Amino acid sequence: MTDLTTTTARDLLPEWRLALTSERKSPKTIALYLDAVGRYLTWTETQDLPPMRRTSLQTWITTMLAAGRSPSTARIRQQAVRRYAAWLLAVGHLDGAPFQGMTSPKLDQPVVDPLTVAQVRALLQTCQPEAADVPATARPLRHARDEAIIRLMAETGIRLSEVIALTAGDLDLATGLVTIRRGKGGRGRVIPIGQATATAIRTYLAVRTTQPHADREELWLGERRCGLAADALYRSLRRRAERAGITGFRPHRLRHTAAHRWLAAGGSESGLMAMAGWTRVEMLIRYTRANASERAAAEARRLDLGNL
Predict the structure, then answer these.
(1) Apex CA 240: angle with CA 119 and CA 113, to 5°?
(2) Rg (CA), the chain
(3) Which whole number is the average pLDDT over 290-302?
(4) Cα 43 from Cα 66, distance rounded (Å)
(5) Mean pLDDT of all residues belonging to the chain
(6) Burial group, residue 122, by CB count within 10 angstroms (0-12, 13-18, 19+)
(7) Which residue numbers delimit the Core-binding (CB) domain (predicted)?
(8) pTM summary value
(9) If DSSP states are collapsed to H, E and C, what string results for the chain?
(10) In the chain, N or C: fewer CB atoms in 10 Å?
(11) 252 CB burial (10 A radius; 0-12, 13-18, 19+)
């Protein structure tokens, strides 16, 4: 079959979902792929264009970028469609590879400034009770929870999705270790935490035991008798950043912050890659670009190579 119709391509999506599941793709990845391909097929149907044509995909990407979508969004969606086409070819629904050799949209390389120590402290301050005589364990759940999470993210650079996936069984506070069972790309790792972070987690656990839904498997509880969802945590941290006077905040900035602080304190690049769960040095460069010149200047002063 050289030219699949949009209807046929849409009818085959459940079969592709099954294939992705059997490959142990994460639910998030599968949802991302299916959403992207679904959007593309809806667009080709509206435009009366054959979906498995190179010009159709190129036109969709161009239209998307012209409408103001970010290059990263366009890139992710284009890659999803190309993966779907590759699967269709592999299982015999296509005779050729319509998108072979097609390049992805070039990504911008924005500089993301890490938070300063003062900003991290201001963020943590929003988790404290207003009255000075309130014991830490008597704070509302959300305050104890968010302090523990902020400390964990700022110290280790753990991803928000990895935070949400934690269970109580992933913690070994006696040795200061946290196990991430399945990080990005299905890779797990063990990360160390310091005393301040461990203490904040213990405080949260003490508050957690008083909750009516404390028997849930998830480590982090929401306030509506359920586990904490990623979007709820995102909103909570954004609100705290606003109260702390931090502009342009996204939780992912804590990952940049942890990376910068690690290197600025003299930590090794290999150690940071292991801590962050990176397998490519390009990721290290990307996350530490903002203060690379500052670190280079400090290292040059230490080396003092001009002193001949």
Answers:
(1) 40
(2) 23
(3) 71
(4) 15
(5) 88
(6) middle
(7) 7-89
(8) 0.72
(9) CCCCCHHHHHHCHHHHHHHHHHCCCCHHHHHHHHHHHHHHHHHHHHHCCCCCCHHHHHHHHHHHHHCCCCHHHHHHHHHHHHHHHHHHHHCCCCCCCCCCCCCCCCCCCCCCCCCCHHHHHHHHHCCCCCCCCCCHHHCCHHHHHHHHHHHHHHHHCCCHHHHHHCEHHHEECCCCEEEECCCHHHCCEEEECCHHHHHHHHHHHHHHCCCCCCCCCECCECCCCCECCHHHHHHHHHHHHHHCCCCCCCCCHHHHHHHHHHHHCCCCHHHHHHHHCCCCHHHHHHHCHHHHHHHHHHHHHHHCCCCC
(10) C
(11) middle
Contacts of 10 (CB under 8 A, 6+ apart): 38, 41
Q: What pLDDT, in 10s, does the model give residues 63-80?
A: 999 999 999 899 999 999
Tally of residues, the chain: 308
CA gap 211, 204 in Å, rounded: 11
Q: Which of 204, 206, 199 is nearest to 142 (CA)?
A: 204
From residue 203, how far is each of 143, 155, 190, 206, 296 by CA, in Å? 10, 17, 22, 5, 39
Amino acid at 206: A
What domains can be seen in the chain, in order of their start residue?
6-90 (1.10.150.130), 117-249 (1.10.443.10)
pLDDT tens profile 207-259: 999 998 888 999 999 877 688 999 999 999 999 999 999 999 999 999 999 99
